[in-house]
């Protein structure tokens, strides 16, 4: 079972998500939170697999809530579910540790697929978010970071799969190697490029034209 926490200040949204997700055999909604602070406390207490988090909530906003959720429950994967594509919200959410960023107009079954994929280790961003993030990242001052040429051919290949949002198991299947080997490649990629997580790696790959974002 994939254990899910729903954090949104609108009761009708929470009820709608809970009712739909309750129909999915492999998903269990373990808690709801009406504000960011409740979400943090629930995540620390219940250690859910996935936290669906809105960005605009009372007491503690979504960005700060994401950081606090991951601090108290490091294994939880956060998916932002919001109405906003503002550049001042998207990039901070990704930097805070969100593994997914979806808009509330997402189709129900697409949300289910996102929950499964992110729980499996993938990174999943709405196409509109990817476009905005790439533009925003491109405008940032260059940071001291190793060049992509330090990667081996296989590592560049794995990086391409990461940028397409694939989890380690799917990458291993596509490349015909073990999942353990993929994990080693991912660790080497992050170390060589001075990155901290898969989301940063995906953005790096797109920004440096190592892979084209899928629409």
Can you lay out the helices and strands and say which pair or pack?
Elements: E1 2-7, H1 11-21, E2 27-33, H2 36-46, E3 50-53, H3 62-72, E4 77-82, H4 87-96, E5 100-103, H5 108-119, E6 124-125, H6 127-139, H7 153-163, H8 168-175, H9 179-193, H10 198-207
Parallel strand pairs: 1-2, 1-3, 3-4, 4-5, 5-6
Helix pairs in contact: 2-3, 3-4, 7-9, 7-10, 8-9
Verbal overview:
The chain is globular, with a radius of gyration of 17 Å. The protein is an alpha/beta fold and 215 residues long. Helix 2 packs parallel to helix 3 and helix 3 runs parallel beside helix 4. It has a six-stranded parallel sheet with strand order 2-1-3-4-5-6, with helices on both faces. The protein has ten helices and six strands.
Main sheet: strand order = 2-1-3-4-5-6
- Rg over CA atoms: 17 Å
Judged by helices, strands and strand pairing, the structural class is alpha/beta
Put simply, the count of helices is 10
List the helices and strands in order.
EHEHEHEHEHEHHHHH
The helical percent reads 40-55%
Shape: globular
Q: Identify low-pLDDT runs.
A: 141-146
């Amino acid at each position: 079972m994939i254990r899910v926490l729903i954090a949104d200040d609108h009761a009708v949204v929470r009820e709608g998500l809970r009712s739909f997700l309750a129909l999915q055999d492999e998903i269990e909604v373990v808690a709801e939170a009406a504000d960011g602070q409740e979400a943090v406390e629930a995540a620390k207490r219940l250690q859910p697999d996935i936290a669906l988090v809105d960005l605009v909530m009372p007491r503690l906003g979504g960005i700060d809530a994401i950081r606090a959720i991951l601090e108290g429950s490091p294994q939880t994967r956060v998916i932002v579910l919001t109405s906003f594509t503002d550049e001042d919200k998207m990039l901070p959410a990704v930097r805070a540790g969100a593994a997914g960023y979806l808009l509330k107009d997402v189709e129900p079954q697409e949300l289910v697929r996102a929950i499964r994929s992110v729980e499996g280790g993938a990174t999943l961003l709405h196409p509109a978010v990817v476009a905005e993030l790439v533009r925003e990242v491109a405008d940032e001052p260059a940071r001291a970071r190793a060049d992509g040429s330090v990667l081996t051919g296989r590592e560049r290949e794995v990086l391409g799969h990461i940028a397409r949002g694939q989890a380690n198991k799917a990458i291993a299947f596509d490349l015909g190697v073990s999942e353990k080997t993929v994990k080693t490649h991912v660790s080497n990629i992050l170390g060589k490029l001075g990155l901290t997580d898969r989301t940063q790696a995906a953005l790096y790959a797109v920004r440096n034209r190592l892979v084209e974002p899928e629409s």
